[in-house]
Amino acid sequence: DGNIDDIRTELTKQGENCIGFTPINRFSGTFDGQNNKICNLYENVPNGVAGLFGICNGTIKNLGLKNVNITGTSWAGGIVGNSYANITNCFVEGTNILKGPSGKGLIAGIHRNVDIENCYSIGKAISLGTGGFGGIIGQAQDMKIKKCFNIMEIKAEGGAAGIISIYQKNIGVEGLILTIEECYHIGDITGGANSESAGIVGGYAGGIMKNCYSIGNINGKANASGMSGYYSRVDYFNCYSVGEIIGTKNRGAVTAICYGGHILHCFARRGDLGELPEKLELSHIKKYMASTIS
After folding, report:
1. Bridging pattern class, strands 104-105 and 69-71
2. Quick one: which of 144, 186, 229, 273 could link to 198 by a disulfide (CB 3.0–4.6 Å)?
3. Torsion angle, CA of 141/143/148/154, rounded to 10 degrees?
């Protein structure tokens, strides 16, 4: 109801006792950002889910954020905190800070049952609190994510991954899995204690990953890997990992711990990353890997 200056102040105001912007909650319609970008979004939610949208089961598309600073007492996300929404063509850029005890992700804190496609995050991320951080999604349940990428240096107090921190299957729902296709991460990841750190997904229980890659050094205080920290009943096809893997527990180029599943046509390279373009297509990384693996 206010003018544009009032709205801008509400979105970005900060201070010791300031809660900043209040999340848009229980949204079930269609929000088309028309490729606009919201800068310097600030939230400090004292009791609940945090994000531009708190809880959403509608459609969000064509929307960008830059330099978010979001604190929640539950899930925290840039675009959505607790998402049941179809999300397409959304992005987060700049230096971003997410804080909270549960899953944290620059697109969604937790995302359930519907697909995400053509989303990305670029820049730098700092994750505070014990909950895992994902460059796209903090926690996922039974969904498909396709053609999403993260080009970002990530530092986290909990677990951290370039795309999804952790996947937890929806108990009692048969036939649904997490499918990750044509996604990639570029950048160094430093994770915290007692959680998985990985280039694509931290913890992965049941699903398919294909045509994905990670380029960057992974430094985890627990299990660490180029693709996933641990997995159970997951099939990997045509996946690549480039970079050093450092972990205080288990380490692996594709996965640190595995329980069932298959790994087919997957490769890894350790050592100096050399000069790499900011954005790579899968065909580029295949050629790069072929020229460097001895």
Report:
1. unpaired
2. 229
3. 10
